[in-house]
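# step 3/5: fold
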Amino acid sequence: MKKSISETVREIITPTVEELGYRIWDITFGKIGADYHLEITIDSDSGIGIEDCEKVHRAIDPLLDEKDPIEGFYYLEVSSPGLERELRTKEHIRLSIGQPVEAKLYTAKDGKKSFSGRLADYDGERLTIEEGGVLTVLSAEEISKIHTLYDDAAEAADIREDERKTQAENAGDETEKQ
C-alpha cells in the first residue's frame, strides 16, 4: 500500500526533529485556497516558542528538498500545537493525562453531548474525565472530538508559585549577603 505524504514526511524528518529535542505532534498536507501547505506541528515537555519552530524549519527544509516527497510547490510551516490542542491520536491522549480536556460525543450520554474536566485516566480504549469529583468513562468510539482546555486558573497558580519561589530565593540571597 502506498504511504500518504504525511507518513512519508514523518519518516524523513522524525530522526532530525528528535535529535533537536522535540517530538512531532502532527503532520498535515493539504490545499488552502489555491496553495498547498505542509504543516509540521512540534511539541516538547518544556513547550514550544517561535525560536523552536524556526530551528526545526531550518533543519528539515534541506531534508525535504533533498528527498522531495511532494511534487510541485508547497509552503512549509512549522508550528506548536497551541494551548488548546486537538487530541487526534492515542499518544496525544496519553500525553494529556492530568490536563483539562473537553470531549464532544457523537450521541448524548447521560443527557450530555460534551464532557469537560481533568483527563484522569486512559487505557488505550477508554478514557476517564473527572469533573467536580464525578468520574465519567468514555470509549474512543463515543468521542467525535477531544481537545485540551487552557486552564487559566491553574496557569495563574503556577505563576504565583514561581513568584513565591523567586521571592524566597531572593530573600535567601539577601540574608547571605548581610
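# step 4/5: annotate
The two ends are 73 Å apart (CA to CA).
# step 5/5: archive (pending)
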